[in-house]
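Table S2 (text version). Query chain:
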Amino acid sequence: MTVLRWTMPKDSVKLFEVAQFDMAGMIELDFTPSYAVWLGKQAKIVVSEVDNSCLRIYDMDGDDPSKVLTVLDHIHSYPVTHIALVSPAEVMISVDTKGLIEYWSNDSYQLVSCQNCKSVNFRVKSETGLFELAKAKMQVLHLEVAGSGKRFVVTCASRKIMVFDFVTGRTIYVADESAASYAKEGALTLPGSSSGEEVAVGSRLKQLASLESERSPFEATFDKSGDVLIYGCPLGVKMVLLTPKGGSLVRIIGTEDTDLHYTGLALYQGTPKVDKQYL
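Corresponding structure-token output:
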């Protein structure tokens, strides 16, 4: 059974069976949740709190799903806003309100390094780039891990995008998609344009400036391989080819409709099963 978790503002987490979209369970909480995510193949969920740095683990197969199995108070010092699973490594990545990124085991719940996890190669966080967001005082809006587990991306309220190599914890690609960055000469010219003609962005820059001030959603996603990063910008939708040493812009789509500014994207690369009676 594939189950969707849904964090509710009214002190509960609801779980739904995806195929039928029937509610499969609910966790009653005595706090306001911020984020919830599965801990891998096991039927356990980790839930963060809006006003507290603690993470709480619940077992959906237990006799009382609302009973807290474990409270993790050693991972973060500030409230956690985003959590993601790196499935191949069985490691969780979490980010708090100060921009601090942590890796921890979904089994032992301990912070990981090369001394206790073969999936990473750093001994201490000072060897990584996991402090960069906190140093720049950037607020994270979105965290996503590539399906391959090789990389993860964070997007920030300042409209900065940062891609990290999971194994090293270091940044491999950084992009500034703020309104200010498009005020620079040549910023509105499409790559490969021989005429140098600039894209007519219409109201997109005005929309972007408004979105930045409101700290509205801003997301980036990976393709199935994890080697292509896709995100919206004032020019349209950018596709960036990632390598271990960086990234290069390979295509921009959606440039024609200048009144739309794309803030979130979802990508499906499977083969859909369609009932013939609906064709």
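Notes on Table S2: The first helix runs from residue 132 to 135. Residues 1-5 have pLDDT under 50 and may be disordered.
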